[in-house]
Amino acid sequence: MNVDAQALEFQYMCAQDEQIKGASHKNVDTSKHHDRRSMAFFNCESHLNITIQVVHHILTAKIDLKHTNNHVLYQAITVPADILDYIELNRTKSMKDVCGHNT
Ligand SMILES: [Zn+2]
Prior knowledge:
Elements: E1 8-12, H1 18-21, E2 47-55, E3 58-66, H2 81-90, H3 95-99
Antiparallel strand pairs: 1-2, 2-3
The protein binds zinc ion (ZN).
């Protein structure tokens, strides 16, 4: 008889795995497209599956990790919050005032 609790499963993939590339769909409205760099994707066949479960009254975690391609490291491609704040604070100023040049 199994009296252990139901398992909790968490599944993750590499952010640069080409398997998830097709999952994002572009908005057909070109006015809503953002001008940003695209991220490189790789055939890294990744997965990270974590299963949490009580087995024989002991909390256990099963971790299954696979990543087959030693590709370049992920780099954030969004504008950092402090830079967005700086832009918002200075958006009505002239280039001369923002850069601090008095020439
Ligand atoms: Zn990867």
